[in-house]
Structure to design on (56 residues):
């Protein structure tokens, strides 16, 4: 098992690449969730504006 994790002289490069990939993907997921929440807020505001300006 340790030999698999060590990966010889390339271990540092490989594991740092995995780490960087996880950080980037995690950041993208967080960004998407933030944008999704913001879009929901904008849609909610637009619906409220449409309801307040529509003729009754």
């Amino acid at each position: 098992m340790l030999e698999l994790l060590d990966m010889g002289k390339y271990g540092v490069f490989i594991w740092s690449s995995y780490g960087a990939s996880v950080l980037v993907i995690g950041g993208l997921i967080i960004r998407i969730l933030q944008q999704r929440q913001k879009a929901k807020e904008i849609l909610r505001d637009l619906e409220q504006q449409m309801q307040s300006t529509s003729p009754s």
